[in-house]
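INPUT
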Amino acid sequence: MAASDDTGMTSPGRRAFLVQTAGSLAGVALIPDLERIGPRRLAEPKTVGIVGVGRQGRAMIAELAKIDGARVVALADPEAGRLRIGLDRAPGAEGFADHRAMLDKRRDLDAVVVATPTHLHRLIVEDALAAGKHVYCEAPLAHTVEDGRAIATAAQAATGRVFMAGFLARSNPVYQLARTFYRTDAFRDFLGGSVHFHRKTSWRFPASGTETDATANWRLDPAVSLGLAGEVVSHQLDVFHWYRNKIPTSVSGTGMVAANRDGRKVPDTINALVRFDDGTSVACEASLGNSFGAQNEVLRGSNAAFRLAWTHGWMFKEVDATTLGWEVYALRQQFHQDEGIILIADATKLAAQGQLKAGVGLPYSPLYYGLADFLRSVVFPNVAVPCGAMDGLRSTIVGIRANQAVISGTTIEITA
Amino acid sequence: MTAPPQPGTADVRVATAAMGTRFEIVLLGEDPRVLRAAGEAALARVEEAHQAFSRFDQASLIAHLRRSAPRPVVVDRQTLAMFEALAWVARQSEGAFDPYYRNPAGPAEWPITDLDRGTVAFPTSFCDPDLGGCAKGFAVDWAVTVLRDAGVTQAFVQGGTSSMFGLGAPSGSPGWRVALGAQAGDPVIALMDQGLACSASMVIRDGRQSAHLFDRGIGQLLTSDHGAVVVGPGAGLADAWATAAAVTGTRPGQLNGSWNCWIRKGTHPWRHPTIPA
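OUTPUT
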């Protein structure tokens, strides 16, 4: 039986509990810890300012409103229309056209959340840290290695200030539970994996108010965009970095505009292969032309495979793997010829309450858990954030290199 | 010299699955790239509403409000306005529309809204609003707001073919034409900057007609076959009033001249009752 690991989670042998369901379910799911998945309350109230209130910034407003003790009191965005929409979502918040004006006037802010386009992160993070604020920065941290290193350097130099990079799998209770299995004989040796991101969308956004189309659609600007590889796949690859405690040594890739032939240069369909120093690799595919399969990561081990899909996770055991005590009770789900164990956090408590099925999936979004983890560290600075500056920088660099490989169609060495 | 593009020269159709049905937007304009971007942003707002108001998704705002009860939760202004509007229609319709109604013997489970603080509080964790009917209409309205903000002037938004809004009108047309049925003689309504919602007391499920609406007055599902269509400034309120009209089988007296209502009883043709004196 495994002991508690450094995430503070207890062993799957004691906590993870699998219950046979009646009816049509025939698979097994990974369900995380009640205390991990339940509502978060801050031990003391904290005030937050958000810089950038586009779609992601607005999602952050909604999630912060669900964290007891977190209060969004200021928003900054240079585009007046977007700021107005943001203020509609955050009653009582004060609006600013510029993050520096926000930092100057709202000295009462405890924390700043940076949700601007990737290439604008650096200046805002540096200013916020210099103003003595704790900072949560969306991931990837930057669009260049230089900016990424500058952000990490500023974060490390800001003694007493919390900095968190928004690679959210590390805060996700389903992924945390899967990682406890990953580190035991239940998974055993890592053989390889794959990353899938499929969504039918143009990835184009309407310009708001006085904003230009080019500003609104920075993701389609090759000069500043990290493309699908950097903006999306980097989050999924971070799962592998975190589980394996290492980053890849090289990446090769290809990309094309396959679905949205509207003059864009940034590929909407990509393939990439990242390789680790032990010879293993992860195949990545992402497309904006088809939504089948949505977003998930697959990790293959010699005893089991995981399929992780942000709010849900499954473990597929090999027939010859040792039977674990709790398996006979597991929730199972059938995927054609494969049967998966549903990953459920704190399954023991849920089962004791007869509510195991209620634990399938997460009661909050992955973003909620990320922001809650950040604010917990703001309240208790001795509690490390799940993704600090250096981890964030490493995954950012992988994303930057992966995008370069896709654009150039070559193999790029990765050194962090 | 090339002639400038004429309004309505491009049309784009986008769709998403949300709230147990299909939402669809048809956009007319000049640049298909801009139209598609606006349409996708509007659908993203619909998906946001789906995530917020689902009774079955434990990550929804509704689930969070239940878990937080009776503590107030800060919500966005549109959501706050929706809760206010629903309570208003429920009171005005004397309960013919009541998304909070469950058990005649049970306690009232109405949310408490605080406009100053921007909060909603559910009185208990058992508060279980059924927004299935009316949330579609509000989602349509919010999608229209996104389209307007994006500069779109001609679009048709519909959710589940029961909640819709015509933004502007196709060139040369008095509005977006919606037929209330497939029979000859069924009314055809032209929507221009108007929402429309329909509701029926009986629906066809698995090939059978089954009761769909609850009559608070008699404390049970309606057995009479009423249909109602309400047209007015917004699809969300139209949804709520259409439910009330389908329950009573009459035009709600509270609807003023900004609203239109059609009623169908059984197999009789649609009627268009005038505003009561």
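end of record. The longest strand of chain A covers residues 41-51.
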